[in-house]
Amino acid sequence: MTALVSHLKLLEAESIHIFREAAAQFRAPVLLYSIGKDSTVLLHLARKAFWPAKPPFPLLHIDTTWKFHDMIAFRDKTVREFGLDLIVHTNHDGLARGINPFDNPPSVYTDIMKTQALRAALDAGGFDAAFGGARRDEEASRAKERVFSFRAAGHRWEPRRQRPEMWTLLNGRLGKGETVRVFPLSNWTEGDVWRYIALEKLDVVPLYFAAPRPVVSRDGQLIMVDDERMKLLPGETPETRTIRFRTLGCWPLTAAVESEARDLDAVIAEVLSAKNSERAGRLIDHDQAAAMEMKKREGYF
Amino acid sequence: MLVATLREEIIAPLPSPAPAAASGAIVRLLTCGSVDDGKSTLIGRMLWDATSIAEDQRAAIIHASQNRLQNGDKVDFSLLLDGLQAEREQGITIDIAWRYFETMRRRFVVIDAPGHEQYTRNMATGASHADVAILLVDARHGVKRQTRRHAAICHLVGIRNVVLAVNKMDLIGYSEAAFRAIEAEFRKLAQSFNFARIVAIPVAALPGDNVVRRSSAMSWYGGPTLLDHLETLDVSTERRDAPFRMPVQLVLRHGDFRGYAGTIASGRVRQGERIVDARSGLGATVRRITTMDGDLTFAHKGDAVVIELDTDLDISRGAVLSDVQRRPINADVLEARLVWLAEAPFDPEAGYLLRTATDLTPVTSISVSALVDFETLASTPAHACAANDIADCRILLGRPTPLDLFADLAATGNFILVSAVDGTTVAGGVIGWAQAGAATVADNVFVLDRELLAKGLCSDLGGTPADLAEFHRRGQEAAILLRSAGIPVLIEI
């Protein structure tokens, strides 16, 4: 009998299969570890895929120096706990030029400190495959992404050159200059990620849970003050509100939401009920451009 | 309520090794039909009626449908599936869009692939992932040539469950006679396809008849609504006594531990059971079935596990662990039906590789014998094939590889063809016939054996596992080069 397993276990088995296929077919894979909930699930699945051995690849974190302090602490704790190899890469040239998320437009900042940094780190490591936590349900433009997403020389994604994927057969034979992004969580949804975290009792960065934190309200968005580098605008004074984060990135660019969800159960309840609302805006029409812009800003995928 | 159900699922202890209830499974739906048939509207209507869409989102969709509503029309349910159209407009060659939703009873994945003839390859690719196909026809027009082609593609890639959704019943006065005529015509054409289950449902997507709500206008229909059917459908296609297969993905070593990692492709395996390596015929006993969550007594189809054996069989990726009695065929010649995926047409002189579950085998030669017209189901003798063609062909392999017939075991009976030059996937196929030792070594076939390689090309390699893997890799690459130079080659290493 097929299919008669809880759907999270089916997703888990599929992801493990993908991890193993990539590890077997590529010469030098690396796992893009960005510390958030998706990375947490990704790393857990990687550990399962190769157990009792350790994952046969290092983790790579692109540190813009603007990650929340809680994130860096969580990253270091995780790496220690599981005895993993972690490569931390920062674009020091960008840093020296004073590129930061307050004085530069988000697109410029993200391109230099994240996208360029990622490319440089992949090239420096000679990696031919990079695991990422991207999911097809994230937005419309990702709904057609492959599990093995091919990049031409220079890491360019060319939609027309993507390979058809039939059944569960994954073809990782690289052409000249090509590299691959591998997405083991392709068929997971945001809800699945949280339910799996609960099921497997995984630790996540505490910022996902509501707590009183210092914030300023700017253009209708709640920006948390993570350290003294926060540049307050005239008239702004940080106030304490009970907030949490749905996604985690660079701190002044990632807005918080007011929430009372202080534990996993509450977060799951909030995500599963809020998700549809969140999508409503973009499902209908106007947000398409914004979603694309966000994707570009994210740069990674 | 939805949240409460999901929480239950989390709290419930995970079944191991016995499978859980069907309610937790994932069902992958392929929707087939042209835009005019109301494909997006049908799925949109189902989401609207059956999933927890927030009130503000409903309001937004109603707002976006303002113009239609003023014309006395209904809400535009297809808006719930937007994005698919836009993606198509980007001109992506093989564009399948994936959508995810869940109802109280089941998790669904909607695979949306274009249905026009010039997109046969896209549809075949999408269909290869589906458990069930919804074939949509417009009640006013009935079964079209295209319907037959869609059914044939679904059959080709192994879909066993088909739903014939006869849409727009409201536009023909909910006529039972018209529906029955369409159903009968479809059942007749489907006879050649051996589907396990065909269910015909009269629906009207826009007003929502028989999509989620039972229609009051069609009291003559006693069958399930579309959602009822999808939520309760048994999508398992495997025979109860299917033989065990596990293609080995990689060998995991950790201290003294040496295990074979893979996903069970069919059947099940038990700790303590005898199994064989299909290629060598060597047997061993399963010492442990391990996962990070602990050892298992049994593992079933779909489980990703690591198997430790009591004896070292010296096997690597590409091996297939198998039932002792019912083994795969160690074939070096096979006949297959394939869909050509690449822009570049089939080139009998080019180098190709055959990718089965986990093995990659150099192809000695491919000869196309016929092209199949999927709208008439007629086959015409041919020697060439190109993008979107469905072709029957005979493939000679450079070395034997363990495989099954697709009709018996789908997961070890399918393959893709890979270009040896640029690595692209050029075709996907299903095996109809295969034989071992049929490709006898003719005078003009060059035999690349271990001795020959060890003398020169691989003289720097020793006996470590890494060196042996490199030995095989070089042998394979040398065979590909010879093959692309027009020299028929057989590897014996």
What does this structure look like?
The complex is a heterodimer of chains A (301) and B (493). Chain A has 301 residues and is α/β, with parallel strands linked by helices. Chain A has two domains: 7-193, 3-Layer(aba) Sandwich (Rossmann fold); 202-298, no CATH class. Helices cover 38% and strands 15% of the residues of chain A. Chain A has eight helices and eleven strands. Chain A has helices at residues 7-25, 37-50, 69-82, 92-96, 106-125, 190-199, 264-284, 288-298, and strands at 29-32, 59-62, 86-89, 129-131, 148-152, 156-157, 179-182, 211-218, 221-224, 239-244, 257-258. Chain A has a seven-stranded mixed beta sheet with strand order 3-2-1-4-7-5-6. In chain A, strands 9-8-10-11 form a four-stranded antiparallel beta sheet, with no helix packed on it. Chain A is globular and about 60 Å long. Chain B has 493 residues and is of the alpha+beta class. Chain B folds into three domains: 2-232, Rossmann fold (3-Layer(aba) Sandwich); 245-322, Elongation Factor Tu (Ef-tu), domain 3, CATH 2.40.30.10; 329-492, Elongation Factor Tu (Ef-tu), domain 3, CATH 2.40.30. Helix content of chain B is 23%, strand content 31%. Chain B has eleven helices and 24 strands. In chain B, strands 7-15-11-12-14-9-8 form a seven-stranded antiparallel beta sheet, with no helix packed on it. In chain B, strands 2-3-1-4-5-6 form a six-stranded mixed beta sheet, with helices on both faces. In chain B, helix 6 (120-127) crosses helix 7. Chain B is globular. The model of chain B is unreliable at 1-24, 83-88 and 90-94 (pLDDT under 50).
